[in-house]
């Protein structure tokens, strides 16, 4: 009933249900509901509500709550029940039929809860009651789904409805998926998502009732009845398919990066070679001076990541994805894969076309010396670090930044020494390098 403690609502409950003999053993967890009492008038009123439910079960059609309210409030059956008391008795009778009944508002299923009962009391004409043929097959099916989505089941919801908590758990699972997985239209390799899997995810995204989702939509998607154990297997397969999307995307990107950076035409050998080995071989083929150069397209950051690669290639791809696209894998969309591969190819071409100064002709060296910079400093371990970068044209925003920096330095005056000002600027340069 949703009533706790000793408030006015509980007093009404005691008057209408406990003292009338409808509720028994309320001190225990297993409260007994008896629809047959010593009061014949009360029994007739309860039977009207129960008949309303049974008719919905037997005819398998929607019945308006307006009809029930008319019967309970009108004089035709000699009941004349006050409107405010009707929700109490409806909720009590519904408890024995919660496995079967389905409440709908504007053809959309509503949760079997106290809030819904109160909304019905306000506008009974907006709500209808229907029923499903509950049996052991459906019960076993729901229990099996509960195990599959156990991590997302809320125990408190089990007491409200026999199956709705499972549907809610499935929706929670869907909401927990990464953005990339939820919005996926085609797979990373441009192949189509299996139709059944796509429809499965779409059904969880749409706002349909738990009864329709579990007993109509899912069986229709996989073309199997509830009593067919293969239906559950198909749901488990679809769930695993989407849970593995990010992992499989990572593995796909590992193979693609290998393909881009490898100079071998031996396909069989490439399949046997690890990503770590391919990258180490590629970086070893580059001139040492390239790791000191700062490239305008970010190739230096790519090279630094490659130079420090470990055998944890999954983590490497995660970092590389963030570097190349500015997004984590979970935040990608269908277009980001091609953007990532294009940028990796650009990094590779930039690195391989780099010409060290000692290999340039003297005239080019002299010209470059006036259009480039070289910065040398010691890192935290005391090792010398050299960074080279080209001089670029400073735009309007760049000039604005320059003016703000110089103004800030001038504003400090003698409050900050010249040595400290140089140190601050040097720290900023080191971070940018």
Could you walk me through the main structural features you see in this protein, from its secondary elements to its overall organization?
The protein starts with 7 loop residues before the first helix and ends with a helix. The protein has a 4-stranded antiparallel β-sheet with strand order 3-6-4-5. It has a 3-stranded mixed β-sheet with strand order 7-9-8, with helices on one face. A two-stranded antiparallel sheet has the order 1-2. It is elongated and about 105 Å long. It has 433 residues and is an alpha+beta fold. It contains 20 helices and 9 strands. Helix 12 runs parallel beside helix 17. The longest helix is centred in the N-terminal third of the chain and has 20 residues. The N terminus is likely disordered.
Q: Describe the strand arrangement of the main beta sheet, using strand numbers.
A: 3-6-4-5
Helix content: 55-70%
**What's the shape?**
elongated
| N-to-C order of helices and strands | HEEHEHHEEHEHHHHHHHHHEHHHHEEHH
Class inferred from helices and paired strands = alpha+beta
Overall strand count:
9
DSSP helical segment count: 20
Using only C-alpha atoms, the radius of gyration works out to 35 Å
How many domains make up the 3D coordinates? 4
